[in-house]
Amino acid sequence: LVALYVNAGTLTTISTYSLPAAPLALTIAPNNAFLYVSTIGGIYVYSIASTGKLILGNSAAAISSDPAQAMQVDATDSWLIEAVSGSAGVFAIPINPATGVPTSTTEQTRVLPASTIQQLTISPDNTYVFVAMGSGGTAAVPFTSANANPFGTVSTVAPVNSAGSALSVAVDPSDRLLYIGETAATAGSNSGGLRVFVFSTLTEVSGSPYATSGLAPYSILPEAGGTYVYVANRQINGSSSGVIAGYTVSASNSTYSLSALGSTFSAGTQTVALAEDNTKNFIFAANNGGSPDLTGYVFDTTNAGYLDTVISSSTGTDPVQASAIAAAH
Q: In this predicted model, what pLDDT tens digit does every residue of 258-306 receive, in sequence order?
C-alpha cells in the first residue's frame, strides 16, 4: 500500500505500508478521515492524518473477514458497503463516523442474482447501490441509510449483448446519469461499450452503448463538474496496452447524449482504475501491468476535455501489479 502526495504536478511518496495479505480494493470515506483496504484476508481500516500518513486502526485487526472485491462508504459515513466475488450478496457494515470501526459485528445483507462481482458504487444522493456482476449484468439496489437493513428490493440491468459482461459502474456527480461499462457491447474489433441510463428512471438514452475504443472498460470516471466522463479500457485489440476514452455530456430539456472526444489517451499496460484528486486538477490511472504503474493527467488548456500526461511513475519494485486507487475527496 502506497500513500502519495501530488503538488503542482510533482508526485511525492508519503509512505509505504505492508499489508497482511494481497490487496483487492480501496475506498476513502467521504469525510476523508478513513481509508478502507480490502485484502484476501479481510478488510482493514486506517485513519488518515493531516499529513496524509496512515495509521492502522482497530488494534491492527480486520474489521471484517470478507475479501471484498469492491466497496464504498455511504454519504453519511455510517455504512461500509461491500461485495465479495463468489458470494451472491451485497453487504453493509455499520461503522462509527468518528472512529471508522464497526458499531456491530452483524452485517446486513441483500442477495444478488449473480456472484461474479466486478465493481460497486453508491449514487451521490445515497439512494442506490449499483453492482457490476459480469455476465450477470448490473444490480440496482435501493438504499436507505437510516434503516436497520439499508437495502431494498434488487432489480437487474442485463448486459446489452448476451455474450457481454458488466465490468464497471458509476453515477455522475449530479445524479443525472448511470454509466455501465460492458464487454461485447458495440461492433468492431474493440467492442467495449459505455451504456448510459437516466438515473431517475433507469431508462437507456438514445445512442447508448457508446464505443470505448477498447475491449474491457474496467473503470468509469465522471469528472466532478459533470461535463465529461472517462472510461479506462484494460486493453485494446491485439495489445495489452490500456487506453482512456473521453466523452462530452450534453443535456437538452432533460434529454441526454454523449459525444466522443476527438482523441483517446494512452495509459500503461492493463489499465484497471481511475481517480480524480480533490483539487479537481488531476486524473490518475492505475495500470496493473505497469509501464508505468501510475499515470497522472491534467486537463488540456486548448482542447476541452482532453488529457495531458504529466506524471508517469512507478509505485514500488516491479512487478507491482497495481489493482486499485483512491483519492481524497
A: 999 999 999 999 999 999 998 888 999 999 999 999 999 999 999 999 9
Based on DSSP, count helices (H) and strands (E) in the chain, helices before strands. Answer: 0, 28
Alpha-carbon distance values, 82 to 69, 206, 211, 310 (Å):
8, 32, 29, 33
Q: The whole model's pTM is what?
A: 0.96
Q: Can you give the pLDDT at residue 8?
A: 64
Which phi and psi (to 5°) does residue 318 adopt? -65, 150
pLDDT in the model for residue 278:
87
Instruction: Give the burial class of 201: count Cβ atoms within 10 A of its Cβ; 0-12 exposed, 13-18 middle, 19 or more buried.
Output: exposed
- In three-state secondary structure terms, 21 is coil
Q: Report the alpha-carbon distance of residue 55 to residue 17 in Å, rounded.
A: 10
236: Cβ contacts below 8 Å, ≥ 6 apart:
190, 213, 214, 215, 242, 243
Alpha carbon of 216 to those of 11, 74, 133, 179, 194: distances in Å? Answer: 28, 27, 14, 14, 10
Distance CA 324, CA 60 (A): 21
Q: Output DSSP code: residue 114.
A: -
DSSP lists the bridge partners of residue 179 as 170, 196
Does a cis peptide bond (omega within 30 degrees of 0) precede residue 124?
A: no
CA dist 192 to 185, 186, 188, Å? 6, 6, 9
- Pick the residue with more confidence: 32 or 318? 32
Residue 231 near residue 249, CB atoms below 8 Å: no
pLDDT at site 316: 67
Distance CA 252, CA 258 (A): 12
Q: Is 104 helix (H, G, I), strand (E, B) or coil?
A: coil
Closest by CA position to 183, among listed 121, 241, 228, 118:
118
Residue 283 and residue 318: Cα distance in Å, rounded? 23
